């Protein structure tokens, strides 16, 4: 039974669909480096726990090699398909329709809610991205996904696909937290009505700890009687950014849901932002961005 007394808000997307603003991720903590066929029962149990607690937005990817586990958990949860928001991602631009059909089989669903191009770094030329985006539009028309979007795209990649797109991406899933605020990229999102979806939202208290936002977090933790993670997740939501987090610990998953119960003030968001820009930290795709790049 769901333990949410206050529902997680949803964000309206530019194609009219809605996305729950807190997601459970099946990548970090769960992705496999080895044999995809070896089932991870701990992950299945954790996804079922998350769904039981009230998570409806589940973030997957072909690259994580965990779509089969995600599919089993969804099926065993007993929650009707239409109550869930399921995302998965294709790593590159080859055979997008075939890759999506394979993902759907593993996920044991007829359609996903959101299909993303995981990153743009495989493309050799702008036309590679444009061709891939046309195929994304095609799989949406076929009804294999309700919405289409991208991940880890920079302004130049977005402008490239937008210049030939019939349907714009609903979102760009990016690393986003107090130490990687990416104002230029978010301005492009805003200009085109593209939602920002944050992965790595807890980085300031995990990989990049200690740091300059710690003092502000301490004050806000006391004021709202929650923990640091919840402040960081709420900091996303209060800037209209969807947060994708994860944990194998039921208590943490349960705690995160308290984000629905409070709001930060504009001044509190600003305080986190002001201290956050004092430090730069990128956990993912460092090689592709290059040392010290802040975009
Ligand atoms: N599109 C992309 O390229 C990427 C997408 N993702 C997606 O986002 C999801 C979440 O990514 P993360 O970086 O893991 O998000 P995150 O920054 O929310 O970190 C979650 C991790 O922090 C740990 N944690 C939580 N509270 C903690 C505490 N107080 N102390 C120490 N550790 C704590 C959790 O156990 C979990 O392992 C992934 O599972 C995946 O679905 C993640 C990375 C890249
Ligand atoms: O999506 C998160 C980051 C990432 C990029 N490549 C891989 C491969 C396997 C797991 C995670 C990732």
UniProtKB/TrEMBL annotation:
Substrate binds at residue 118. Residues 25-274 form the NADP-dependent oxidoreductase domain. The keyword Heme does not apply. InterPro entries: AKR, AKR3C2/3, Aldo/ket_reductase_CS, NAD(P)_OxRdtase_dom_sf, NADP_OxRdtase_dom. The active site is at residue 64. It comes from the Eukaryota. Pfam families: Aldo_ket_red. The record marks 89 as: Lowers pKa of active site Tyr. One of its GO terms (molecular function) is oxidoreductase activity, acting on the CH-OH group of donors, NAD or NADP as acceptor. Keywords: NADP, Oxidoreductase. Gene3D superfamilies: NADP-dependent oxidoreductase domain. Belongs to the aldo/keto reductase family. This is Aldo-keto reductase family 1 member C13. It comes from Sporormia fimetaria CBS 119925. The lineage of its organism: Eukaryota, Fungi, Dikarya, Ascomycota, Pezizomycotina.
